[in-house]
Design brief:
Length: 295
């Protein structure tokens, strides 16, 4: 007997589902079909902390991420550095994880090239320059000890930048010595490092702490935002996408979150159709069973 549409849905080959999801992902990444993203308070606070900083202010960015957390955390770092440099802020970047040494350098150079290309295309004479607008200090082992040293004198922990140039020889670092000379610090990390920054920089020195973490870690840090120990929080790919939306910056997080939203829609649609097919076919079988002649 020929099967009905609902009966065919119940035995559909899962490979068709995978194919449809693959097509949706590609379409979401390639086509300009974007869904809206709501802005949460921790992300808005993160944005406001950098947006409200006076031009020329200094922010410290600790890039404590590894290869496994790049998809979620790299978009946060790029958007943060992009936002700060474009606003005319000075950025000091470093990392307390050896795995992130080359990653952090790449992010700083990529954002610099992206901003300079934008300025050139729009006829803006300004250019972002290493040593004048940003400094990359590289990696230093020690964790909490390094964080405490930065509170007294940066040059104790980092006498020179990543490229071997002494900080006293860098124009941007002329009057920058410790947290008192900084507007805020940002830690984007896939580890427990944000708690260490709060304990050894935020609490004793009073510098505002802005944090970006993976989605699985975000829930444990919302309490810090409620108590004011963290001035802002980006949680996972969604947090990064919200931040990009506030910046009108079409980055990797926006594209990734858009694809994720479309996948969720497709999965929910399959679940709904599967349940409808199940109840319709079960009702049909019940009716056929009740209509069958009894022996």
């Amino acid at each position: 007997m020929k099967k009905t549409l609902f009966e065919r849905l119940l035995v559909i080959d899962r490979r068709w589902i995978f194919l449809i999801i693959g097509i949706v992902v590609i379409a979401a990444l390639v086509l300009p079909i974007k869904l809206s993203i709501g802005i949460t308070t921790p992300v808005q606070n993160f944005f406001d902390a950098i947006e409200g900083a006076p031009e020329g202010s200094v922010i410290l960015v600790s890039m404590d991420l590894g290869p496994s957390t790049l998809p979620e955390l790299e978009p946060m770092l790029k958007a943060t550095v992009y936002h700060a440099l474009d606003r005319g802020l000075k950025v000091i970047s470093l990392t307390l994880l050896p795995d992130a040494t080359s990653i952090a350098e790449r992010i700083m150079l990529q954002v610099t090239d992206e901003l300079n290309a934008k300025y050139e295309a729009t006829g803006v004479e300004r250019r972002i320059r290493m040593g004048e607008d940003w400094v990359y200090l590289g990696f230093r082992a020690g964790g909490d000890a390094v964080i405490l040293q930065l509170g007294t004198e940066i040059r104790v922990a980092f006498p020179a930048d990543f490229y071997g140039t002494y900080l006293d020889d860098l124009p941007m670092m002329k009057n920058i010595h410790n947290y008192a000379d900084m507007r805020a610090m940002v830690d984007v990390s896939g580890t427990a490092m944000p708690e260490i920054w709060v304990a050894f920089a935020g609490a004793p020195y009073g510098i505002p702490i802005l944090v970006g973490v993976t989605a699985v870690s975000a829930p444990q840090y919302y309490a810090y935002t409620q108590t004011g120990q963290m001035a802002g929080l980006l949680g996972g790919l969604k947090g990064a996408a919200e931040y990009e939306r506030l910046l009108n910056y079409d980055g990797a997080a926006t594209k990734g979150m858009n694809a994720q939203q479309w996948i969720h829609i497709v999965v929910v649609a399959f679940i709904v159709m599967g349940n409808i097919a199940y109840f319709v076919t079960r009702g049909k079988k019940d009716r056929e069973k009740s209509a069958a002649p009894k022996p």
